[in-house]
Structure formats: structure tokens, C-alpha cells
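Researcher: First entry.
Model:
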Amino acid sequence: MSNPTREVEMYILGCMLVSSDTIPLVSGHIDSTAFVTIDHQLIYDAIVRSYDKNKVVDPMIVEHLLKKEKNANRAGGGIYLYDLQQRVVETSNIEYY
């Protein structure tokens, strides 16, 4: 059985990995404590930090940051980041979620 909260979190993180334009839309409303699981909290924080520093975000950059902080395994690893990105077809509903 699927977990609707986790699926929404996956969609939000995936959108942020697909389009940097979605990051300020999300980070303006929530912080990492809005995410239920530690893996998503770590990913969210890494995405926002990368965006704030470079305005560039993709799974490889986020994975590198997570590895540097020794959090890559706790966050699900690089394959999970690419999976999050691949799940997203459309980012226009990000503010709804």
C-alpha cells in the first residue's frame, strides 16, 4: 500500500530536482521539518543549500553535497535522487502540493 504523504514529498523533491524555478516557490512556504522522513529532510536541505549557493541543482550536485556531509546513504543515494527526478512529468502543480 502506498503512503500518500511520502508520495507528495517525492513529487515536491522531484520537481525541485527537475526545475530550479520551483525551489523558491517551495522554500518560501516550507522548510525541511515539513517532511516526515529524514531522507527527505536531508535531500530538501541539500537542494535548498545548493540553490542558495549556486542557483544550480540536479541529482549529481545534490548527491555530491550529501556525500561531502556523509549523508548520501541516509538520503537514499544517487539512484534515489535520479528516481525522484524521473517521477516528475509536470512541475506546474508544485504550489498545490
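Researcher: Second entry.
Model:
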Amino acid sequence: AAPSMFELLTRQRALVERGRRAGGDLGLVLTRRYAFGSDAPESAVRFVQELIQSTPIDVIARFFTVLREHDKADVLPVFDKVPSLVLAADKDLLLPLKFSRALADAIPSAEFVTVPNAGHVVILEHPHEVNAALRRLVDRVETRLGKSSNAS
């Protein structure tokens, strides 16, 4: 249903953009619901809402279509050969945890991190946890590079 919905929204772009600008409190409620998994500060919710509203609906529709068609599951084994991280938010309504779990299962050597009480914008919502996971990934890369440098 989503591709048809985006096609319809794109055809009615002017109407959609007016509605998005007039959304006000409804826009804040929807942004909080679909972007965050915890009681985020209103300033963060407004920031994300502004980001979304500043992106034209036809760009969002094209992105959704490309992302849906971009299935590269056959190349996932390559990621098993390098340090990898799959970071998931346990309350992400846009990318449910089961999909991140499936990705981690397809990359057995990847570190799988689930951030509790986090939604789709986990990096804004829980920056310390995201930074810690990224730091561990960088450390693993540095360790691996150090080992390969010493071996040559």
C-alpha cells in the first residue's frame, strides 16, 4: 500500500506540502510517536519535525521507492569479513527490531547492539550509547589494522 500512497501524495504535492506546514501540534505528535522511543525533549522533536518538513514529499517518495527496491542481501557475507556493527532501537516503528536482528543474523561476526527506549532517531535520542558502540567498532578496526600491519 505504501508505494501507491506515495504515488498519490506526489501527484498532490502542493496540497500535501500545505498540509504538512499547517500540521502544527499533529505534526509534533506524529514525529514524537514515529521518531522517538522515549520522552524526548520537545526541542529534539521539533528539530526532527523541521528536518522532515524541509524535505519535499516527492523526495521522500523517491527515497522510499529506492530503499524498498535496494535489496543487497546477497552481498552481506562481505560484511562478515570486516568489523561490523548493527545498531538497533528497540522501539523503532519505522525499522522494527526484527529487521535489524535479521541483518545481524546474516552477519554473524557483527556486534549487535539494541538500544533500549529508543526510536528511529536513536542517534539523537541516546547519543552516548550510539557513540560507545561506534567507538567499539573503531577500536576493532584499529586492532585489525594493527594486526595486519604487524603481519606484513
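Model: Note on the second entry: The beta strands are 85-89, 111-115.
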